[in-house]
Specification:
heterotrimer; A mainly alpha; B mainly alpha; C mainly alpha; A: mainly alpha; C: mainly alpha
Chain lengths: ~220, ~240, ~50
């Protein structure tokens, strides 16, 4: 079976499993809303400041939510040891990882898109004129987040205290994505809106480097 | 065994360190604007460079472990990671000591120092990860993958924070360009720090190797006890049958 | 001179970090070497 087909099957399994209950999606969305609201208590989100701090807070919220929701990615498999079953299937081990990366990517992206209108309202920013470019940033940033996040989730799954370990591993490693995404978003929401090509280049570089690394080394994590 | 074979390189490095200290404190020309405090530079910057070398070793050792699966590569990886963290700790300590007299504040979110902080946290979490996995093979494996990813992140962290700082400038710790007379001193200090790194690595690697040896011998001793008691049981049974 | 104090503090800290690290590792190495000697004796006795 080809890699693409195998990954697609894993992806559809993950999607179906999640949409049966939607618990991950619901919890993630609510969590991000709470983080955004709580952030506003720490400073006064009147227009000038909110435009400066808003994008950073948004991506910080995505980062926190992402690192929490990535944990079940491999932890879920451990209850009934379904990972061993997957490993025995006649597919490339990387397909399992790829399928999970794609699934996590879609979940997190969906959560982000659901939250964007709320953010726009709460922080008084004009999202519609730059929607297309904003989507590009969301896709690139989220891809970087979930690639590294899924691999580290597999790492943490083999350790104790994995709920605390995963954010601990992720937060320093994802600093480039946080900075690049926040700065690009801030540029787009600024006056006049601009898409900085340098930050985009950094996001693309991050995604390429870690997708390649995941492809080269990720499967070792799935060994018995 | 250890004392004699180690003493020559140890003395060599000690001499290099003495030379480095002397040059940095007395031989190097005094910088015009900052005066004496600038001499911290001779240890602040090379410590960062040496830390990078250590983390590069972590990456190489990690790849080697994934390919060869020999435990010695894992021993090298953890040793290099600890030594690297020690060097970056030195960078993080000397930065504020420099900043306070020059800028009046301990921390300025300067690009180099901020990046160092992030990377320090990253490799501290590498060490933390290792304490949380009990099985030694699994620990070696997950550390190896994390170690590779961590090193790949290093240039990206520096790039993104440096670019962030050019857009939102802050006071820079470390000052501007280097007077050409300062280069030889800088290089001697870096050589000294690299020498110390090699010595520290060797010791730490030895510690891992000894741990492994103790584990094996302890297991052997245990099996020896078990087979002894098994023999005793045989003797007792034989006697009972008589 | 104030700057001299900071300079000395910096140098001291740097070498202290490496010195303490070397000390702690060295002590553990010595302890393990003693343990190995002890185990060698035990194994030597056991093999009779």
């Amino acid at each position: 079976m080809s890699l693409a087909r195998a990954a697609a099957i894993i992806l559809s399994k993950e999607l179906r499993a999640e949409f049966r209950t939607r618990e991950l999606l619901n919890t993630t969305v609510v969590f991000v809303v709470m983080v955004i609201v709580l952030f506003s208590f720490t400073f006064d989100p009147s227009s000038a400041e909110s435009r400066r701090f808003g994008p950073g807070l948004l991506w910080l919220a995505f980062l926190f939510a992402g690192s929490l929701m990535l944990h079940p990615s491999f932890a879920r498999e451990q209850a009934n040891d379904t990972l061993s079953a997957l490993r025995m299937a006649p597919i490339e081990p990387f397909a399992i990882l790829a399928g999970k990366v794609l699934a996590n990517f879609l979940f997190l992206l969906l959560a982000e898109l659901l939250l964007l209108p709320l953010f726009a309202v709460l922080y008084n920013v004009h999202v519609v004129p730059v929607l297309g470019r904003l989507l590009l940033v969301f896709v690139l940033g989220t891809l970087g987040l979930t690639t590294v996040g899924t691999v580290f989730s597999a790492v943490a799954a083999q350790a104790r205290m994995r709920e605390l370990l995963l954010p601990l591993l992720l937060l320093p490693a994802l600093a480039p994505v946080l900075i690049a995404s926040a700065e690009t978003t801030a540029g787009l929401l600024g006056d006049p809106p601009r898409l900085d090509p340098n930050w985009l280049a950094i996001l693309v570089a991050f995604d390429v480097v870690f997708l390649t690394a995941a492809w080269l080394f990720g499967e070792y994590l799935l060994e018995e | 065994m250890s004392a004699r074979t180690h003493s020559v390189p140890t003395f060599g490095v000690a001499a290099l360190v003495a030379l480095a200290g002397y040059s940095a404190l007395f031989l190097a020309p005094t910088e015009r604007t900052m005066g004496l405090i600038q001499r911290i530079f001779y240890f602040h910057v090379p410590s960062a460079w040496t830390g990078f070398v250590a983390f590069f070793i972590v990456c190489v050792a990690s790849v080697a472990y994934l390919l060869k699966r020999a435990p010695k590569w894992d021993w090298l990886a953890v040793s290099a990671a600890e030594v690297g963290v020690a060097y970056f700790t030195a960078v993080l300590v000397t930065g504020p000591i420099w900043a306070k007299p020059v800028w009046g504040i301990w921390w300025t979110w300067d690009a180099r120092l901020t990046s160092t902080f992030v990377l320090w946290l990253l490799y501290v979490s590498y060490l933390l990860l290792r304490t949380l996995v009990s099985d030694s093979e699994r620990r070696a494996m997950v550390s190896a993958v994390f170690g590779i990813f961590a090193f790949l992140d290093v240039p990206l962290v520096y790039l993104s924070i440096w670019f962030w700082r050019t857009q939102h400038p802050q006071p820079v710790i470390g000052g501007g360009g280097l007077d050409p007379r300062m280069w030889p001193v800088f290089l001697v200090c870096w050589a000294a720090l690299l020498g110390v790194m090699v010595l520290l690595l060797r010791q730490r690697y030895l510690l891992e190797a000894l741990r492994h040896q103790v584990q094996e011998m302890a297991m052997e001793a245990q099996m020896g006890d078990q087979s002894e008691s098994f023999e005793n049981k045989q003797v007792v049974r034989a006697k009972g049958a008589q | 001179m104030k700057n001299l104090e900071s300079l000395m503090a910096a140098y001291l800290f740097v070498w202290a970090i490496f010195f303490v690290y070397q000390l702690t590792v060295g002590r553990r190495v010595a302890r393990l070497q003693a343990e190995i000697e002890r185990l060698k004796e035990t194994l030597g006795q056991g093999s009779r």
